[in-house]
Amino acid sequence: ARIDDAGAKLVITADGGYRKGKVSALKPAVDAALADRNGSGPQETVEHVLVVRRGGNDVEWNAERDLWWHDVVPAASADHEAEAFPAETPLFILYTSGTTGKPKGILHTSGGYLTQAAFTNRVVHDIHPDTDVYWCTADIGWITGHSYVTYGPLANGATQVLYEGTPDTPHPGRWWELVEKYGVTVLYTAPTAIRSFMKIGRTVPQSFNLSSLRLLGSVGEPINPEAWMWYREIIGSGHAPIVDTWWQTETGAIMISALPGVTEAKPGSAQVPLPGIAVDVVDESGEHVGNGNGGLLVVTEPWPSMLRGIWGDPDRFVETYWSKFADRGFYFAGDGARLDDDGDVWLLGRVDDVMNVSGHRLSTAEIESALVAHEATAEAAVVGASDETTGQAVVAFVILKQSFLDAHSAEGLAETLRRWVGEQIGPIARPRDIYIVAEL
Q1: Cβ(35)–Cβ(60) under 8 Å?
Q2: Which residues does 148 contact at the CB level (< 8 Å), separation at least 6?
Q3: Residues 288, 410 within the same domain
Q4: Domain that holds residue 362
Q5: What DSSP string runs through 170-191?
Q6: Is 147 helix (H, G, I), strand (E, B) or coil?
Q7: Which DSSP state fits 246?
Q8: Omega of the bond prior to 205 within 30 degrees of 0, cis?
Q9: In this structure, are 222 and 367 located in the same domain?
Q10: How many structural domains does the chain have?
């Protein structure tokens, strides 16, 4: 759906990638996405698939379409003359979940996005290119990886660590080993990772020298105070400040955060909008709720890195983000928040049918659609459940067709459906639990 929606001409993939020390095939997913679908004919816009040899695993090859990176890229000229483009030239489309199930292609443009990504990386992460070693652990395909692995750090000339793999392979102290080895000074990661390390215990990180760390960051979901305190005391040795950042794929860059050396630390609070950013917490009619109260988080003025639209769907752009408070011109973030007595912002989570799993937004409707698309499923309903590690977890209730129940065990079908959702949407969307029920 994403390839079709964007009208992509080139797909870049790899033969495989490494996960937990083993090669995981990647190209088959691309081949399946480009295959003849439901008899409607092959994907029409993609002209080539550029394949990086990474895992060394065997791959199926389409000689008319597929190209090896090492055959094409090294042969190209290394000299290129930079060209100037208008600030509003499209830079990228990044897809995120929506309440209707169909992914939204969020469009960001060059000038404003790059300005705010670079500025926030500089002031929130306090990057000093001559002395810092910076590490953002985000997947590069996530907005955090775009803004704070690629564009922001490159624009600032930062020295950074790039890591392929999981936090616990080949041993549970892998991250802290890398911090010690490279002298990482600024670490930006997600609360899910922090809570995972809390489960392992403090003895693992404390067996490494983490004294180089001077600033810690959190991103992707609200961080609970217990995880905040553990992060600061165990990873930050009790002295490294924490910047708990709030922003979205749509905002493009950090919007609300503590500022190191400027704001007073509050465990669990995103704290204050950055200079130039105007936010408010309002009730259903758009009225300011006042300190000490909760409501809906809105952005009240334009900002440099704001999304410029939903690719190919201007009506959905207006309906999703601007219609709720159309008379006031507020951007509605879809998050609940409260203001404490000082006016600082505390995030309360989503207020729509979008879940936040390990910092990734997932649509209940999209997962339900994937489940119902399987031949064994008659009906499905998906909800978000609390999870002490991932914040929220996907839980599905499924009515199966009787013919499949007669031929297979319920446990086997549930596991089949978990794998199916992972194949259709991605591993992050696999339900933690699937309950086979008689009615919804």
Answers
A1: no
A2: 117, 121, 125, 136, 138, 188, 219
A3: no
A4: 354-436
A5: SSTTHHHHHHHHHT--EEEE-H
A6: helix
A7: B
A8: no
A9: no
A10: 3
Write out the two tokens for 427.
Answer: 């591993």
The answer to whether 96 and 106 have CB atoms below 8 angstroms apart is: yes
- What does the longest C-alpha to C-alpha distance in the chain come to? 67
Could you tell me if 166 and 30 lie in one domain? no
The pLDDT tens digits along the chain (440 residues) read 788 889 999 999 999 998 888 999 999 999 988 886 554 444 578 999 999 999 999 999 999 999 999 999 999 999 999 999 999 999 999 998 765 567 899 999 999 999 999 999 999 999 999 999 999 999 999 999 999 999 999 999 999 999 998 899 999 999 999 999 999 999 999 998 998 899 889 999 999 999 999 999 999 888 888 899 999 999 999 999 999 999 999 999 999 999 998 988 899 899 999 999 999 999 999 999 999 888 899 999 999 999 999 999 999 999 999 999 999 999 999 988 889 999 999 987 777 766 778 877 787 777 887 898 898 998 888 988 988 888 889 999 999 888 888 888 988 999 999 999 998 888 889 999 999 998 87
CATH number of the domain residue 362 falls in: 3.30.300.30
The residue assigned the tokens 């775009």 is 146
Residue pair 251/265 in contact (Cβ under 8 Å)? The answer is: no
Do 113 and 51 share a structural domain?
A: no
50 and 98 in a single domain? The answer is no
CATH code for the domain of 291 = 3.40.50.12780
* Structure-token pair, residue 141: 């395909």
**In terms of domains, do 152 and 254 share one?**
yes
Same domain as 163, residue 25 = no
Q: How far apart are CA 157 and CA 48, in angstroms?
A: 32
